[in-house]
Amino acid sequence: MEEQLESRLFPKYVVFISKVASVIFHPLFIGIYLAAFLLFIHPSYFLGFTDQSKLLKLLTIVNNNVFFPLLVVALLRGLGFSNSVQLKTQRERIVPYIASITFYFWTYYVFRSQPENPTILVLMCRGMFMASSIALIANNYFKISMHAIACGGMIGLFILTIQDGTMSSGIPMMLGFFVTGLVFTSRKIISDHTWFDLIVGFIVGLICQLTGCWF
Asked: What is the Cα–Cα distance from 180 to 182, expressed in whole angstroms?
C-alpha cells in the first residue's frame, strides 16, 4: 500500500533515489563517514599517526557502532520481535536504541582510555552516545528521525572543526548541508516522518554533538 502511494505521488526514479540516499546516509553509516573524515581527511587531528593505526581506529568504530547494532536488528527480525529491519514503528526501535546506546558508550569509553587519541574523536563518540540516549526517551512520545539526528551530529562536528581553527575550508560544511537536505527530502518521500520528527531530530543531533564537545 505504501509503495503504491509513493508511485502515485512521485516518479519511480525519485523514489528509487530516495531509497538509495536513505541507505547510503543511514545513521549508522554517517558515523563511519565522520570518523573517516577526522582520520584521513582532516589536516591535523591525526597528524603523525600511521595509516595502519588510523585504519584500526576506523575498524573499531565500524565493529562497535555498525556491526553490533546491525546484528541486534537482524536478530530481532529473525526471532520475530520486529516486522522489518527498517524499524518502522516506535516499539520496534526500543531495543535497537538500547543496543546502540550500549555500543556507543563502549566505543567512547575505549577511546577515552587511549590517551593518544585526539580529543575530537573521543568527544564525537560521546556526542553520539548522548544523542542516542535522548532519542530513546523521545521515542516514547513521537517517532523521532534517526537519520535527522545523524545529520545534526554531522553539522555539529563540522562546526567544531571550523571553530577550533584547525580547518579553514568550508567545503565539508557545504557537503554536510547538501547531505542533510537530501536526507530530509528522501525521508519525507519514502517514510512516514513528519517535519516535526525531522527538525527535532536534527536539533537533538546538533545540540548533543556540540554539548558533547563543549562540556
From this structure: 5
